[in-house]
Amino acid sequence: MPDALLTLQALNAHYGDFQALYGVDLRVDPGEVVAVIGANGAGKTTMLRSIAGLLKNAPGAIRWKGQAIGALRADQVAGRGIALVPEGRLLFPSLSVEENLVIGGQLGRKGPWSLQRVYDLFPILKERRHQQSTSLSGGQQQMVAIGRALMANPELVLMDEISLGLAPVIIRQIYEALPGIVGEGLTAVIVEQDIAKALSVSQRVYCLQEGRVSLEGQSQTVPREDITRAYFGV
Ligand code: ATP
């Protein structure tokens, strides 16, 4: 087994008195796509936000290339090479497409991603580069959010429900871009509501149920009944 890129070990997360994650263990190896599925409220977004340094964590609960990063701030996590594509995109509404993309590159990590490469991946963004980001369609805005994360030249990209609210044709377009993103030194963790989609684009899958890992398996071979049980708890 290769050395893990990212490991979660007994990760807990709280919002005030409410505990959202209970002892989550997860492993991500270099170059793979790991899918995280689970019902609404299972803790998927919380897990990604914990990794990204947006929630307080025990230092050793999150390890990046063996180093404890659980107590780092979000900007420090980003500086290590972990980028989040947040649920709801969170673009800068008054800025243009290109300005949003350029902001993603401001951490200045060196790597293969540039404006041109993002435009090659999503040609529509080049056409629309001077438009205000809010004037784009939902799917195009999602492309900006992905492009902005890639501009930071991350080693790991965390994608939170990138297909939410998008038309099937746009979802297909975005997922077709995934092989051009992952590999070549880039690894992905994707949170996805659509289970079939999650399984088809990933090598391994985790299911969360009420803040706990209820299943871990190989995406291509995990029995469908096991997923149903892990997802719904039946
Ligand atoms: P969804 O698929 O609906 O986005 P999720 O699996 O991403 O769900 P989370 O958003 O991580 O789930 O939420 C996990 C639990 O934490 C839920 O019970 C939710 O109500 C709670 N929660 C999330 N954010 C907060 C917050 N800011 N304050 C208090 N509770 C929160």
TrEMBL record:
Coiled coil: none
Keyword Magnesium: no
Ranges for domain ABC transporter: 6-234
Pfam families documented for this protein: ABC_tran
GO MF term (any one): branched-chain amino acid transmembrane transporter activity
Superkingdom assignment: Bacteria
Keywords for the protein's UniProt record, in alphabetical order: Amino-acid transport, ATP-binding, Nucleotide-binding, Transport
BP term (GO), one: L-amino acid transport
Family: Belongs to the ABC transporter superfamily.
Matches recorded under PANTHER family: HIGH-AFFINITY BRANCHED-CHAIN AMINO ACID TRANSPORT ATP-BINDING PROTEIN (PTHR43820:SF5), HIGH-AFFINITY BRANCHED-CHAIN AMINO ACID TRANSPORT ATP-BINDING PROTEIN LIVF (PTHR43820)
Protein name, per record: ABC transporter ATP-binding protein
Organism expressing this protein natively: Pararhodobacter marinus
Source species taxonomy: Bacteria, Pseudomonadati, Pseudomonadota, Alphaproteobacteria, Rhodobacterales
